[in-house]
Amino acid sequence: MSTFTLLLGGELVRTPRLDIQTAGTRVIAADSGIRHADMLGLLPELWVGDFDSAPANLPPHLAKVPQERFPAEKDKTDGELAVAIARQSGATKLILVGAFGGARADHAFLHLALAVRLAEEGIDVLLTSGAQEGVPLLPGHAARFDYADDTLFSVLGFSELTGLTIKGAKWPLNDIEMAFGSSLTISNAVKGELEISFGSGRALLLAHPFPLPET
What we know:
- This protein is an alpha/beta fold.
- The protein has five helices and 13 strands.
- Strands 1, 2, 3, 4, 5, 6, 7, 8, 9, 10, 11, 12 and 13 form a 13-stranded mixed beta sheet that branches.
């Protein structure tokens, strides 16, 4: 398996779990995502984008990263361009670091939808901010996760879901139909080995393996 870490422009906290996930991977930065490189101790092999949000005063080792520039008026985001380049380079697994938060909610939504499409095309995808993780779920497949008990999670439905079953959770479900836009699967918690399956539809697991700050 060829794994690429793609540094995107969203929020990020460094965690031991994230260090393990990105260790030994190939790295591509998308525009402002290069600011995460030193935080994670990673050196990108390529920096792509239109560079309209590139950070100023980069340290020399990052300023020297090879660049692939694109015009500002283009039909793909910098993140989607990074995905395409990684796939052309043989990626079979993508870790989208900095996929959530940031100033652009539209970009965060795109990353969620893009991850689902990539999974349907056979690419293993993880979206992460360090604190939160997103994993696409495929119909007809029982997905199992190693999250600790009490880890907060939600199942985000991008369509109606049929035959939805959730095991190893505080609020389990068994073979239900869930309407598109339902909040039924928001804010559950892991109790045992989490397992999620459904018969048809599109969905993504969003989990919080790193403790949320108290408010």
